[in-house]
Design a protein that fits this description.
By secondary structure, this protein is of the alpha/beta class. It has one domain (about 15-140, about 150-225): 3-Layer(aba) Sandwich (Rossmann fold), CATH 3.40.50.150. About 35% of the residues lie in helices and about 15% in strands. It is built from 7 helices and 7 strands; from the N terminus they run ααβαβααββαβαββ. It has helices at about 15-20, 25, 40-45, 65-85, 95-120, 155-170, 190-195; strands at about 30-35, 50-55, 125, 140-145, 170-175, 200-205, 220-225. The radius of gyration is 17 Å and the shape is globular. Bound molecules: S-adenosylmethionine. The site of S-adenosylmethionine has 19 residues, from loops.
Length: about 230
């Protein structure tokens, strides 16, 4: 798949649960969703009484503008998925059209929550690699379909600075997937891991239940070690 830049394309709470192997305890943590875009994760979690703050550069725009942008990218993405359908696992979706419809439904759930969430400070216009949060403001940070996936569009320096920033604002960070848009492993995973001193961080690559891009069933889980 070839895209000019990062597209706003949103997933659901169910998908976040599988991508990040979220346990009941995880769901009850204070969560930062980094690059949540038009995902319905925050809306669904809020409805269930959980605490999620989402950041994304698209939150500078109005609901109408976001909807317009998502709908404008719809045909291109669905067409590209059709062209490369052998690169995907067709288990949860029958075909590219059904996938596209699921993404639009997630966006609609997001849009219904967007104005209220913005007023409550749950959708904030912020961007990696620099966030306006205090150290340890959150307990868990989730970053889905941004870091590593867009390795062709964003530099290694951006990835390293972003991961260090996420580990400043939360003691635990999970990133999914670890492959690029073309399904090849991101060349940055090793370098990001090496940038994190082993005595300060516990780092695991874990297999998860979610796999839509073939081979994209791993998340990177980084936890800050407690200082003795
Ligand atoms: C492919 S979407 C994924 C949305 C959501 N995380 C999900 O998995 O459904 C990637 C999102 O990253 C956002 N994004 C792009 N650059 C970013 C940055 N520097 N910091 C935070 N988010 C960014 C985009 O606006 C877009 O909404």
């Amino acid at each position: 798949m070839k895209l000019d830049d990062i597209v706003p394309w949103g997933r659901t709470l169910g998908e976040y649960r599988s991508m990040f192997s979220l346990s009941k305890t995880d769901l009850n943590a204070s969560i930062l969703g980094c690059g949540d875009g038009p995902a319905s994760f925050n809306a669904e979690m809020t409805r269930l009484g959980h605490s999620v703050t989402s950041i994304d550069p698209i939150y500078q725009f109005s609901a109408e503008q976001i909807e317009q942008r998502v709908r404008a990218t719809y045909e291109t993405i669905v067409a590209q998925v059709k062209q490369n359908s052998d690169r995907y696992v067709w288990c949860n979706f029958n075909d590219a059209d059904q996938l596209g419809q699921a993404r639009l439904r997630a966006m609609e759930m997001f849009l219904l929550d967007y104005e209220a969430g913005k007023a409550n400070g749950r959708y904030l216009h912020q961007s990696l690699p620099s966030l306006a949060f205090a150290d340890n403001q959150f307990e868990l940070c989730l970053c889905s379909h941004l870091l590593f996936l867009y390795s062709e569009q964003r530099s290694l320096e951006f990835h390293i600075a972003s991961v260090h920033e996420l580990l400043r604002v939360a003691p635990e960070v999970r990133i999914f997937p670890l492959i690029k848009l073309d399904g090849q492993p991101s060349p940055y995973v090793e370098a990001v891991i090496h940038s994190l001193p082993g005595q300060w961080f516990s780092i695991q690559i874990e297999a998860v239940a979610y796999e839509f891009q073939k081979g994209g069933n791993q998340m990177l889980k980084i936890s800050r070690r407690a200082i003795p």
